[in-house]
Design goal:
Elements (H helix, E strand, L loop, with lengths): L10 E3 L3 E5 L5 H8 L4 H5 L12 H17 L3 E7 L5 E11 L4 E8 L8 H16 L4 E7 L3 H9 L3 E12 L2 E11 H6 L1
Parallel strand pairs: 5-6
Antiparallel strand pairs: 1-2, 2-3, 3-4, 4-5, 6-8, 7-8
């Protein structure tokens, strides 16, 4: 089926989270997240566009661009809100790599004030269900810095296989870092 004809849900719910496509007005939540808990500095390594988000208008433009990417099936970016409080706590992004396979890359970010509470694991599990069941993925990949232990341990906890290591492929602030490549096939997701 052509990607534009896929009926894709715009919201996923778990026990504690609402994960959904961005909507008009969500920019204020994104900006608030960037301005607390050193999130902007930590996000810079994976999403350098955060430097351009300095005002509510900048953030609103960003979330509306993500909504447009969703409609064109270019990228699926979703915010995460806690069901209990309505607080915005992170973001999931899914990038199609090859629609003909189909394969996708999964990325995630959790507000540093909410780490070590199982939120990233819960959000990633919901995202995998969305990827394999709704987007009909054959393969999902996660690419993370080898210095980001929380991220690569999450990939392993979810059942991903480490498929490669690009050693010392980056340099920043006087330190070298590499990239781990993880993959999960549809058959592995179904058997997990």
């Amino acid at each position: 089926m052509h990607k534009l004809l896929l009926e894709i849900p715009t919201q996923i719910e778990s026990e504690t989270l609402i994960i959904r496509r961005y909507e008009k007005g969500d920019g204020k939540d994104l900006l608030a997240l960037l301005e607390r808990n050193n999130n902007r500095d930590l996000l810079r390594e994976a999403a350098d566009e955060v430097d351009g988000i300095k005002t509510v208008d900048d953030a609103e433009i960003d979330v509306r661009e993500h909504a447009a990417e969703w409609e064109s099936r270019k990228r699926f970016v979703m915010g995460m809100w806690l069901k209990s409080t309505g607080e915005y706590v992170g973001q999931i992004w899914i990038e199609p790599k090859k629609w003909e396979v189909p394969s996708f890359e999964l990325g995630y970010y959790i507000d540093q004030g909410y780490t070590r509470k199982g939120i990233a694991t819960e959000a990633a599990r919901c995202s995998l269900k969305f990827l394999f069941e709704d987007l009909k993925a054959h393969k999902v990949i996660i690419i993370t810095r080898d210095t980001n232990e929380r991220s690569w341990k999450l990939a392993e906890r979810l059942g991903f296989t480490r498929e490669g290591h690009h050693r010392e492929s980056g340099f920043e602030d006087g330190k070298r870092w590499g990239l781990y490549y993880y993959g999960m096939l549809n058959s592995e997701f179904k058997s997990a």
